[in-house]
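QA checklist item 7 of 12: single-chain prediction sanity check.
[x] sequence parsed
[x] length recorded as 416
[x] structure emitted
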Amino acid sequence: MTDPEKFAQKAREAEVLVRRLFEPTPCLRNDHLSQAFDCDVWLKREDLTPVRSYKLRGAWNAMIKAREKDPNIGLFVCASAGNHAQGVAFACRQFGVRGVIFMPVTTPQQKIDKTKVFGGEMVEIRLVGDYFDNTLEAAKTYCASEGGHFLAPFDDLDVIEGQATVAVEFMSQMVPDVVVLPVGGGGLSAGVVSYLKATAPQAEVYFVEPMGGRSLEAAVAQGHPVTLSDVDSFVDGAAVARIGELPFECLKDISPDHILACPEDRICSTMLEMLNVEGIVLEPAGALSIDALQDIREQIRGKRVVCVTSGGNFDFERLPEVKERAQRFRNLKKYFILRMPQRPGALREFLDMLGPNDDIARFEYLKKSARNFGSVLIGIETDNPDNFAHLFEKMDAAGLVYRDITSDQALAEFVL
């Protein structure tokens, strides 16, 4: 991938192959975001592919190339947190070839079910490991023992060329000033960046990772891929502990200040905003590029910006969790432990402190005894963050002892 022109040609050839499956996904101007950030925001809607993510592109291109080299391949194996799995499953059914797909045990059920639908009888799914990297190791071991062909989710040149077709498509429509890309294993970023070097070298590119999975940031800092010791799996489409070797070769020289990290709770807020305001369903990884716009507000002002919305495979059973995390980020919901006096009328006195728009979402005695005081877990929802300041002022004036545990991750895991 050292020759940008040669890579660009390979990407264009891959784009021709992708046309066998689906038409180009739209790149649509979003007026809501454009007004909010005082620039010209366009969304490259990869959530609208047949498998609702860009991953089909790389899987399809890699499978075609593999079968060209060996038409007798009878087994394809992959590891995926969901979207690559769906792409491989879709391609296996198109070719009529067997596929075994390894997915983390923590994969949302919606992605598992859709993978089964796309693959039909041609695909077997195996749930192994709590994190993607454990799943990847199990898949490679199985593939070697069975003599199959492994379809890497990102660390494969044919996959990277396939993902680059995202850029081939939006560059046929416009020349952006700024491109914002979500980063997991790095296949999409490597493909898009490599293509832009040949076609739009002046374009500025930002790379967005979830706060709990900054493998690109770590790799650039160290000068080589490193394995993160801990990964937050909430942004399951981008929560990768180690960026791919091949993608890193394309990304190793990027500026650290162009690598952004988005808090998971803030991503939830962006997901809800896009759903409620624009009617666009995005999974956490799919919202990364949009969420990051607030971090580069000044840098993008007045410019044409393309955000790649990489996936829309969202399990709506997760919506209560997303809403909860978004409310906490916006300071519209708080949890605290209150030392409640054990006497008649104490609860009524506390309730009288609440404002007209404050609502109790959780009330639970954590420790109830014959003593004069007991510990109570209370969750409060409101419509304005300032309401909590007024509530806490009243509680302080009444001499109540309490502790805000909303942002205390360790304690929240046990009581929320």
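[x] summary fact logged: The longest strand covers residues 333-341.
[ ] second reviewer sign-off
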